[in-house]
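Throughout our pipeline, every protein is held as a single compact record rather than as scattered files. Such a record has a labelled line for the sequence and another for the backbone structure tokens. This encoding replaces a full spatial description with a residue-level series of whole-number codes. For reference, a complete record is included directly beneath this paragraph.
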Amino acid sequence: MLEISDPASLPLFSFHETTSIIVTLTPGKDQALILNPFLLIRHYMIIPDSVSQQLAKDYKASSIKTFESNLTRIMKAVNPSYDGTQIFDEDSIEKYFDLIHTYLQSVDKSPLTYAFLKLVKILMPDSEFIGDLKELQEQQEVNKKMDYLQKKGENEDFPFNWDELMEMQESLGKEVQKYKTDTRLNIKYLFMSLIKYVEPQRSEIYTSTILTEKDTTIGNYINLNKGVWHIRNFKTDGIHEPIKIPLPNELMGIIKEVRNNIKNIFLIPRLDDVTGQQTSVSLNKFLKTFLLMSTSKIRSLYVTTMTARQEAINSQNMGHTANVSRLVYNKNVNDYVIRNGQLYFPAAKNEVIQIKDAIYIRKN
């Protein structure tokens, strides 16, 4: 076991996942010492401490680690002399921007562009670079969809269509009237009712939402008296505003009915303990037992169906942008046309969307 007599005297320590050494953090430094029993090396973080602190407000540690890895990859690509001691600050962004932009265009990887865009927005919020990077990222999403379409060449298969899910919801409602205390049956009925009346959400939103009779300042919750779903914590909450969804009376009646039947505290509770919080993994595992789909695929089915019917989709309520709906969740390849190396995808009536040199329109 490696012992440190005075950890505070060292610049900064971080936990090294391959060892069992627990070390002490000293904030406000840009460098770190990574220790293991056989090797002592000095490692410098790629971003200023101020950026790390800003990211920590909106992202999990694992996401920040990925963010830093992407930025390190960019720095190594544009700076041959990179030795681990340089950090991304305003000066390095200005110095390397043209090279970085060219590199990001060549690798065509939107996560890399997103990481660099986020860094620039934090350090240089008024920079003209932001517009160029946003344009590049949107074009990369287009390219990703084009690649998907060219490789797949056919529509994605879903085990059910949307109408069949709505029929299932009605059938489950009748079953609940017969077996009111059946926990699994009530949760099935509640979930199917939620996707009937509200745009399908990510799994962690269903499992983290609590039912309360008054407003609260933290977390995700449904106010049973006001009939409003407040969603503050979700995957993209760092770039989107909190979501507030007024719930229809029909759905509120079902939520209260199920709560009366099984006494759940969370919107979608654990199966073995309705007072406990279920995990995203266990929820998706449960859904696959009767829907053969996860929440992600249900979201794709919803967007694909509504797009085909030319019905409006409230992307904000789903926690993403309209472009993500069109480019990621819509799986109906018949809605797309590729002409002269450009991707044409569904647009609302009388709407023309232009990204860089490509204009997107609905196929006639």
